[in-house]
Design goal:
Elements lengths: L3 H10 L4 H8 L3 H8 L7 H10 L4 H9 L1
Amino acid sequence: MLNKDLLVDKIKENGMTLEAFANELGINYTTLYRKLNGESDFTRAEIQISKNVLNLDLNTADIIFFG
C-alpha cells in the first residue's frame, strides 16, 4: 500500500511540486493524482524514476511504495 504522506514529503524535501514530479515521471498531474489516491498503481519504471529523482534509499522506497 502506498504511503502517500511520506512520498509527498519526499517530493517537497527535494524542492519539487507535484506537477514537476509528475513531469519527471512522464505522466500528467491527473494521472499522478490518481496514483497518489490509490485509484491506480505506480509502474516499476515510475518507482525506479522516483527513487532516482528523490534520492530514495531502498528501505525508504519500500516503505513508500510497498508499505
